[in-house]
Design goal:
CATH topology of the largest domain: Jelly Rolls
Radius of gyration: 21 Å
Distance between the termini: 24 Å
Helix content: under 10%
Largest sheet: 9 strands, antiparallel
Oligomer: single chain
Order of helices and strands: EEEEEEEEEEEHEEEEEEEEEEEEE
Number of strands: 24
Amino acid sequence: MAVPKPAVSQPKVNTAADRKTQPAFNPPWRTLFDGKTLKGWTQIGGKATYTVRNGSIVGTTVPGTPNSFLITEKRYADFVLELEFRADTSLNSGIQIRSNHFPAYKNDVFHGYQIEIDPSPRAWSGGIYDESRRGWLFKLEGRQQAQKAYRKNGWNHYRIEAIGDRIRTWVNGVPVADLTDGLTRCGYIGLQVHDIGQDAAKTGRYIEWRNIRLRDLGGVCWTVSEETPEHPVSALFDGNRDRGWQGDWITLDFQKNDRLESILLQLPESVSPHLQIAIAPEQAPDAWTVVFEGPLPPKKGGNLIALNGKRARYLRVSGKSMAIGEIKVE
């Protein structure tokens, strides 16, 4: 099939000229933490401890374990998030938004946008880091007003807006980050306790979060289905790179009302896997519509599969024949 050359979007640091009025839609605030229990949250990643104390969630460091995350049970697309936190001055941390974990990507590692908590002299609190993926997207070098907004040894207030492909942050009322990036439009919210390696001096130190609330502005949350008789997404890579292939990101371009315009599949130029891509308006065994099946020829910039506004909420990507490899789905 003929495919037009895609326009691959890149993260964009916004300036004052890019700022636009946000939608007037203001649903009521929803409390994500009841101040008494961890109901609605679950822990993944490392083995740092999360408890409730004096109306706050307390995350405490443990040596010899990777980054730990306490994440919401629900995924969110467009939202405004506000919370307060207080961190030990020796600890780096962050607030994850639009973050996900898939068996096929780095052994289920939690990855996505992180709003930095940085008490160090670097002072990049409120910046945007792409956890376990692309690294820094919005640094605070030369932004002195933003760097001075964070309060050491005290409570800090974060406001985070994720609307469409735009992410903005405020620290104690001071505007900090303004980023346009459409790689991931939906995911979990998470509270990070950073790993401390084997540093015994940092064992038992903690960070506290409280007054966590959210305005849910809706948006589309895509769900990856693994219910397929072929190789599901989680099985597309069997560990044998000699016989397999390694994929890159899938980008979804959709409009309102779940209208999917296109799928961009970016793969190394040297491979040509045989895939089946299907969509469904609702998650049901008989609802899947195959929109592409066959080999994807190597193509610089990726293969763009046009769907011409088909209504879809679920995406399924499965390998056929010998197409065994790793695919990262957002």
